Amino acid sequence: MTTIAFIGLGNMGNPMAANLVKAGHSVRGFDLVPANLETAKANGVAIAAAAGAAVEGADAVVTMLPAGKHVLSVYEEIVPAAAKGSLFIDSSTIDVESARQAHAIAAQAGMLSIDAPVSGGVGGAEAGTLTFMAGGSQEAFTKAETVLEPMAGRVVHCGEAGAGQAAKICNNMILGISMIGVGEAFVLAEKLGLSHQALFDVASTSSGQCWSLTTYCPVPGPVPNSPANRDYKPGFAAVLMLKDLRLAQEAAQSAGAVTPLGAEATQLYALFEAMGHGGTDFSGIINFLRGDSRGIPSEALERSGS
Ligand code: NAD
Question: Are 236 and 106 in a shared domain?
Fold first, then answer.
């Protein structure tokens, strides 16, 4: 049995911590929101009075927080409170620069650390089937694998510090762009009098095939459990897609990468969110492209230059 501290018990963190408890680990948790602490307690997590108290004597620490600034401020508090040689795993989706700073804080204090953001959403967190993409030393990764195992379907070592975050934002940039591409194709098909099913049957077995089409189809019908069949209830909310696309754009700017489609996708999701659709599943962008009542009038798209 390992003693694990878990900081950040929100939509993702709570089911992840619950799976660590189910695997027989002793889990101590902390969050700023009392209702989240109540849920954690009901799942068998021991509640600590503060983040620093949660990590005292823990073998490993998992953080699942909103953004880089939260991770860095929590690390400033918890790294000095942990035993030397403890393992720090940050599973939040954050910018690559902050991830590297978090590694540096841990390394200076003699800790092992990995950045290990996840793919799979709340469903994957509940089922214990998340994909973890990890960055850090081989030693840290090998130790982290056993901690991550009860929460994971797959754990991939992507490289050194920050490589997990890099993999996450590159993957989600592909996803954001491809969902817009698939949405545009269905909108064009509608205008041309082609049925959704006919386009799906052809493209899903042709060169247009991709995850956004075959697993997460943005029109109701062809893939019965995609969010389009439940009025675009998430799933993966558009606001989270926008967050990841912005992280990719920040990284592209600082690394000097040319990502014109990533930039365009960011702008389209920003407009979609500004029109009040941030809580909609990200595949709902098709309604925005179509300019129907759940999107925005097409003149607004023209005005934006998009
Ligand atoms: P969330 O907002 O539900 O949870 C974050 C939690 O962190 C909140 O409960 C908040 O109170 C807590 N927190 C913030 N500052 C804190 C502090 N100083 N000390 C202790 N707790 C603090 O968000 P979430 O959906 O669980 O996402 C967490 C991370 O996982 C984000 O980086 C997100 O981008 C990423 N992610 C989310 C999903 C998803 O589908 N929700 C999927 C993949 C990755």
Answer: no
Instruction: Give mean pLDDT in consecutive 10-residue pieces for the chain, a chain of 306 residues.
Output: 94 97 98 98 98 97 97 98 97 97 98 97 94 98 97 98 98 98 98 98 98 97 96 94 98 97 98 96 97 58 44
Q: Strands 152-159 and 130-135, how do they pair? A: parallel
Strands 130-135 and 118-119: antiparallel
Q: Which of 22, 69, 168, 233 is catalytic?
A: 168
- Calculate how far, in angstroms, residue 154's C-alpha sits from the geometric centre of ligand 1: 21
Q: Are residues 114 and 255 in the same domain?
A: no
Whole-number Å distance, alpha carbon 68 to ligand 1 midpoint, is 11
**Cβ atoms 75, 82 nearer than 8 A:** no
Q: Which of 141, 160, 179 is the last residue of a domain?
A: 160
- 0.85 surpassed by pTM: yes
Question: Which ligand 1 atom lies nearest to the CA of residue 93?
Answer: 32
